[in-house]
Protein 1
Amino acid sequence: MSRKHLIDLNACIERLAANGDLVRVRSEVDPVHELAGVAYHFEGREVVLCERVKGHNFPVLVGLYWNRAALARLFDCPAAQLPFVVADAVQEWQTRPIEPEVGDSGPANEVVEEEVDLHKLPIPTHALGDAGPYIDSAVVIARDPDTGVRNTSIYRALVTGPDRLTVQLDEGRHVRDYYERAEKQGRSLEVTLNNGIGPAVHIASAVPSSAAPIDKDELGIAGNMTGEPLRLIRSQTVGVEGLADAQFILEAEMLPETREPEGPFAEVTGYYAAQDKRWVVRVKKITRRKNPIWQTILSGKEVFNSVGLVGEAAVFRLVSRQVRDVKGVYFSHGGCGFYHAVVQLKKSMEGTAKNAILATFAAFPSLKMVIAVDEDVDMTNAEDVEWALATRFRPETGLIQIPAARGHELNPSTDHGLGMKLGLDATAPCPRPLAFERVKMAQVDVEKLDITR
Ligand code: MN
C-alpha cells in the first residue's frame, strides 16, 4: 500500500476522510480564538479541517495527532503497536538509514510569493491569553554551523511582523546548540520552517536526542518510515533545504545578538508560558503549493500523543535492552505526554523494577515520575495503575527520590527545570506470593448470548 500519505498532507487528509477520522467545518471561522475553540470541541476525536477561515484564502487543518487510534490507522497498525512501528523505523534508520534526496523543485515551491507577508497566512491565535498568532507545527530544518549536519525539530514561533517571528529554543535542543555556536561567530543561523506535512516527518522531528544524537540527521527517519528517500528542495535565499512535499516553506534566519518579547502561549503543560525576551527569526522568502493548507497543532492531547509516542518508542528500545524484564512504556496523558511514564515488567527476579525506573529516567530527562507495574496491569489505564499503587506499592521500600535533577523547564513545579524525580515501584514481590495473584474471570463471548434490555 502506498505510504505517500505519511509525507503528503493532501493524501493524508484523503485517507483520514476514508477512515471516517475527518470533520470538515464549512462555516467561516475566525482564526483569532474561534478556530482553536472549534478544534478544542473535537480534541481527541476527529481531525478538523476548517475550510473557510475569515480574512484568508487557505484552509487550516488541526488535530492530526490527538487521536492515537486515527493515527494508527494511517500507519495501518493497531494503536498499541504504534510506538513499536515508530521504534522499528528509528532502529532501522540507526543501522541502515535511507538518506533524503535533494532537488530543485517540488509541490512546496509551485508558487513563490512576491513579497514576504506572514499576515497573509491563516495562522491562528489559539488560547484567550496568547500573545498573538503562533506557528506551532512547522518542522524547522537547520544545519550545524561546524559540521553541516542537518537537524529537524518543532518549536513555537510568535508572528510579530510581516517578516518577523520570535521563537522559544528550549535548553538542550540541538538547534539551540547550533544557534549559540553561530552567534559566537557573529553569524545568523539559516533555517527553513516547513508547514503542512505528513506524520512521518513530524514524528522524525520529535525523536529525542538519546535516539538521534547531534551528529545524526534525523530527517532520514522519515525515509525509513515510508521506505523511500524523503524529497528535499534547495532554498533560494538560505543554505538549508526545505521539504519538497510541505504545503508552505518559510526560508529564514535566526538573527544573532537579537532578543524580542515572546509569549504568553498556551503550552502543552496546560499553563501559559510566560513572556520573555527570546530568539528572533527574519523570514526572507515564502514558497507554497498552488492550493495550500495551513496546519496547526492545539497544545494538549495532540502534543501528548506526538511527543509521547516517539518518546515511548525510543525509551522502550533503550530500557528494554538494559532491563530485559521490561515489556512496555507508556507516557500518560495526565502527565502531559512526557512528564510521567509507566513502565510495565514481567519480573524475573526481585529488584529489576527499580533498575527499570532508573534506566527510564536516564533515557528521557524530561520525566518527573516513573511508575513500575506488572504485566497484569493495563499501563494505559490510569485507574488500573492507581490500583497497582494502592495494592502493591510500599512507600517505605518502593520509593526512589532523586533531588535536584534536571527535568523540563516548562514544568512550573520545577525550578527552571531543576527538580526532584520520583520513582514508584508498584510491582508485586517476585516470585509472586498467592496474596498478590490478581483475580481472574472467565472470558465469555457475550455477543453470542440472548440478552434484552
Ligand atoms: Mn537533532
Note: The longest helix spans residues 301-322.
Protein 2
Amino acid sequence: MCATCGCGDDGAAVITVVPQHDSHTEQHAHSHSEHQHTHDHDHDHGHQHDNEGPHDHQHGHGPGEHVHVPPTETITLEQKVLAKNDELAQGIRQRLAERSILALNLTSSPGSGKTTLLERTLRDLPEVPIAVIEGDQETLLDGERIRATGRPVVQVNTGAGCHLDAAMMGHALEALDPDPGTLLFVENVGNLVCPALFDLGEHAKVVVISVTEGTDKPLKYPHMFAAAALVLVNKIDLLPYVDFDLGKCCEYANSVNPGIELLPLSATTGAGLPAWYDWVFAQRSKLFSVLEDESPGA
Ligand code: MG
C-alpha cells in the first residue's frame, strides 16, 4: 500500500527473467501477495477514508454513511509505512555495501526512455558487471529487453502498486543475487510521485525526463527532483521538433534541488552518453573509496 496515493501492492510478484533457451519463466510469486493476505488493518483503514472517493462507501457502517477520519490519522499511517520502508531500505543499503554493489534507482514518468537508456548503457559497457531490477505494474516486456542484452535481470510486477518499495527490492535482490562489485540499475515504475518517497536502499536516485515532456516537470514534481542526485534529459535528438527549453528546465531543477546536475543525452543516437557513464563511474569510485576507508585494515 502506498502511503500517499493509496495504491495497493496486492499480487506484486518478483519474476526471474531466465535466459531465452530456458523453457519457462520462474515465478517467485510468494513475495508480496502472501504478506497482503495477512490483512494488516493498519493500512486498510487509513487510506480508504482519506481518499474521500468512492472507496469510502465500501467501508461505511451503513448505506450512505460517511466516516470522518481526522487528518492526523493519515499522517501517522504515512509515517508508519515510510518508517517501515526506511528500516528495510537501510538493511538493504548495508548488504549492498558489504558486497561493494552500487545501486542506482532510475525514476521518471512513463515513456521517458529509461529502458532504452539501460539497453544502450548495458551494451556500451560490456566490461562492467551490471545487473538490472525492472519494475512495472504488469508484463515482462522490459525484463525481456534487458535479458536480450545478456545481463542478469529480475522483473518485479507491482500489480496495482505505482512504485517499488524496499520489500520488493529485497525480494528482487534475493532472486537476482548479484555478484560482489556489480553495478545495479533499478528501473522504477514510471511515476514521478510515489517513487520519490520510497527508499530502496539505493546509493542514489537518478531522474530521467525527456524533451517531449514539459520543461516545467521539476516544478510540478518537486519531491522527485529534490530526492534525485542527477537529472538525465533524454531524447535531445528531438529538440528541433519540440518546445522544450533546456536552460529553463535546468533553472527549475536547481530551484528545487540547488546544485543538481543535468545531463542532456540521447539514448537513441548516443549523444551525451559519455558524461552519463563518467558520472556512474565517479559514483562507483566514490563508493569503493568510502568502503575502503571503512574496512578494518584501513
Ligand atoms: Mg521501462
Note: The chain has one domain: 82-291.
Protein 3
Amino acid sequence: MLWIDTDMGFDDIVAIMMVAASPRRIAGVSLVFGNAPLEQVRRNAAGAAKLLDWRFPVFAGATTAILGGIETPAHVLGPTGIPTRGKALPDAPPAAPSGALSALVSWLEGLEAPGEILALGPLTNIAILALARPDLIPNIACITWMGGGATRGNHTASAEFNAYADPEAVAIVLANALPLRVVDLDLCRQVLVSPDDLAPLEGLTSPRAKILADLLGAYIDIALTRGRPAMALYDPTAAAAVIDPDAFAFEPVHVTMELAGTHTRGRTIVDQRPHVVPNADWGMRADARRVRELALGALMKAARP
Ligand code: RIB
Ligand code: CA
C-alpha cells in the first residue's frame, strides 16, 4: 500500500497517473501547499480526480511551512500552479480543508506491515506527522521524496523548490530518522520531456487527451521559454523509483539541511565522504528511457477514450 503526499502541480498529476497505472494500490493522498496555496492545490486535486476518474480518498494538510510562511513558484507556474496553453482541469468540489494528519495516522495505525510514502511536495505534512506521532515512525518503511539537489538549485541558485518551501520540515524528517530516499533535481534532470513527445497525445481526439496534451505542452513550455530544449520530469521520476525501483541506483549519504545561509537557505548538503554516518539514500542514476516510458505510457493510457 502506498500513500502519496503532493502539492498537485502537473508533474505531480503525471506521477499519480503512473502509480495508478501500476500494480501499486494508492491508499490515500494528502495535500500540502507548494505549487500553489493549499486552497488552489485542493481545487487542482478535485479537477484532476474528475478528469482522470480517481477514486482514492484525498485529504488536505498544511497551509503553511512549519515556521509559518508560504513560498510558491507562482512566477513560473502562474496562480494555479499548473500552466496551460488555454485548457484547464475541470471544476469540481474540493476535498474538505483539513484531515491529512488524522488520515495518515489512521492509515499507519491500521497497517499490517510498514507502509510506503511517495512525497512530491514540501515535507510539511510528514514533519507534522513525525512530531505529532513519533510512535508511528516505525510503521513507515520508506519515504521516497522528490526534493533537494546536490549541485545547482531551481527555485534559487542553491535550493530546489520543495526543499526551499519548508527547510525546517526536511530538517525535522532527518532529525527524527525517518527512512528517507531522495530523488533530487540532478537525478530528475536526467529524465527529459521535449516537444517531440507531444505528438502521440496530440494525435488523440478524446476531450481528456486534449486537456492532457495542452497541460503537457505548457509544462514543456516552462523549459522552452527559458531557452532549454526539454523539461525535467521531476515528480514522475520519483514515482518511477517507487513502481520500478530496479531502474534506479541509490547510495547511502548524509544529508544536512541548510536552514540559515544568507544565499543558501534550503540547500541540501550531500556528504558522501566514507566516514560519515548515512541518514538517507540518495538517487545517483536512473534509466531515463524506462522512466520516460512509464510517464508517457501513463499519459497515453489515461488519454485513450
Ligand atoms: O522542484 C521540483 C518540484 O517543485 C516538483 O515537485 C514540482 O511539482 C515543483 O513545483
Ligand atoms: Ca510537486
Note: The chain has twelve helices and eleven strands.
